[in-house]
């Protein structure tokens, strides 16, 4: 049972990444059919709210804390940095640059989250310990693998001459760009990708704070999705006034909206919130590059997408860096548990240790008053007299002959 609990966050995050990869493939198909990406986001978040809200109401009504205005503000900003504005910036960046270029920013999320967690004290790095060295090394290897995965194409590994070679997919859609891309559009796209990456990384930090104040994953996800749906609808209506874009066309679009809403934005955010609560934001963000790898694994046999050497080499480096980083996190948790157990044992020993008192009877040959020296825990009374003789167990330790102390 203990081993099952330890592996549960790993299994949940792998399932979440597989679901995100499936959402990305469906998103790619519906956008190729001409669906507005902001409309897709709005429908997706609305379905997530309808799907998760009953679960949060019935399953958490006995343990849910009071919903204060401060918690609502946290959830509102969580919707901004985790759903609505973040997805808008990512899709805008893809539209103005390219899907391949945007992958480099998405794969930087674990490292940026790790760096953002250090000032807040959520993550600590002790370079003298092996766990701290492993976390730094794993982060650097992940950076190298992510850059190689997205910036180096390499030779094609399969012969799909009748299909166009596609770049790996990572939480983004393949939006085609015109060949005549201006420098201004490219600059806007880079700025949008930087903002999207920073916001997505900050969501993991913010979620670690929310999980402490409002530890109800289903309720928090429902409220966050509700706020994000309103925000996305406002952005969509302000940028596109054509109401005909809100009508889905075909079964693929309906299936994609339902799956992305119930699974992608519903259960996946619940699972990520739970993993942030259990293992921290860096652990949860470290699995982000796996979305790109899993999407490529689905694209090759199903959609006959091309696989290149750079993708394989980058994926291997990302997996190695992820393993090193998670190993460092595991070692750090084991060290913390060991220290807590040692401290608990020391406190227990101190509480069980009886309070000992030593009674010393002082007798003076000169018929002065008898004094008692009591030595106990936390107090001491000194006998200030002339040179004395101490009798211990019948033996005299003679310094001078008066007075005499009998130890009993």
TrEMBL record:
Domain EamA: 11-150, 188-326
Molecular-function GO terms, alphabetical: transmembrane transporter activity
Transmembrane segments: 7-27, 39-59, 71-90, 96-122, 134-152, 186-206, 218-240, 252-275, 282-303, 309-326
Compartments (UniProt record): Membrane
Family, similarity comment: Belongs to the drug/metabolite transporter (DMT) superfamily. Plant drug/metabolite exporter (P-DME) (TC 2.A.7.4) family.
Membrane-protein topology: Multi-pass membrane protein
Entry-linked Pfam families: EamA
Keywords, ordered alphabetically: Membrane, Transmembrane, Transmembrane helix
Official protein name in the record: WAT1-related protein
Domain of life: Eukaryota
Gene Ontology CC annotations of this record: membrane
Predominant subcellular localization, coarse grouping: membrane
InterPro entries per record: EamA_dom, EmrE-like, WAT1-related
């Amino acid at each position: 049972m203990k081993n099952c609990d330890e592996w549960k966050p790993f299994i949940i995050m792998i399932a979440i990444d597989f679901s995100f990869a499936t959402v990305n493939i469906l998103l790619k198909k519906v956008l190729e059919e001409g669906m507005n990406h902001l409309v897709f986001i709005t429908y997706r978040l609305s379905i997530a709210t309808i799907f998760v809200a009953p679960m949060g109401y019935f399953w958490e009504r006995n343990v849910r804390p009071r919903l204060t205005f401060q918690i609502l503000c946290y959830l509102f900003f969580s919707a901004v940095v985790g759903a609505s504005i973040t997805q808008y910036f990512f899709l805008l960046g893809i539209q103005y640059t390219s899907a391949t270029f945007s992958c480099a920013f998405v794969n930087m999320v674990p490292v940026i989250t790790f760096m953002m967690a250090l000032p807040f004290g959520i993550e600590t790095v002790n370079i003298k310990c092996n766990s701290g060295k492993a976390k730094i090394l794993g982060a650097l290897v992940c950076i190298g693998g992510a850059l190689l995965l997205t910036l180096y194409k390499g030779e094609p590994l399969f012969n799909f001459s009748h299909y166009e070679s596609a770049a790996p997919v990572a939480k983004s859609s393949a939006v085609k760009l015109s060949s005549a891309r201006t420098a201004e559009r490219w600059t806007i796209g880079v700025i949008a990708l930087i903002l999207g990456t920073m916001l997505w990384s900050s969501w993991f930090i913010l979620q670690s704070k929310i999980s402490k104040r409002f530890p109800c994953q289903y309720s928090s996800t429902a409220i966050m999705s509700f706020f994000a749906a309103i925000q996305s609808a406002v952005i969509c209506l302000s940028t596109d006034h054509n109401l005909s874009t809100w009508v889905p066309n075909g079964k693929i679009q309906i299936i994609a909206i339902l799956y992305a809403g119930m699974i992608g934005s519903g259960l996946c955010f619940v699972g990520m919130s739970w993993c942030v609560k259990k293992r921290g934001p860096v652990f949860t963000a470290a699995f982000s590059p796996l979305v790109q790898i899993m999407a490529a694994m689905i694209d090759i046999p199903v959609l006959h997408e091309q696989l290149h050497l750079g993708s394989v080499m980058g994926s291997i480096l990302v997996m190695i860096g992820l393993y090193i980083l998670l190993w460092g996190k595991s070692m750090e948790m084991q060290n913390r548990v060991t220290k807590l157990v040692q401290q608990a044992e020391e406190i227990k020993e101190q509480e069980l240790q009886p309070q000992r008192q030593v009674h010393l009877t002082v007798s003076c040959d000169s018929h002065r008053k008898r004094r008692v020296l009591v030595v106990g825990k936390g107090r001491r009374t000194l006998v200030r007299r002339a040179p004395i003789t101490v009798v211990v167990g019948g033996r005299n330790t003679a310094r001078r002959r008066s007075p005499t102390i009998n130890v009993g």
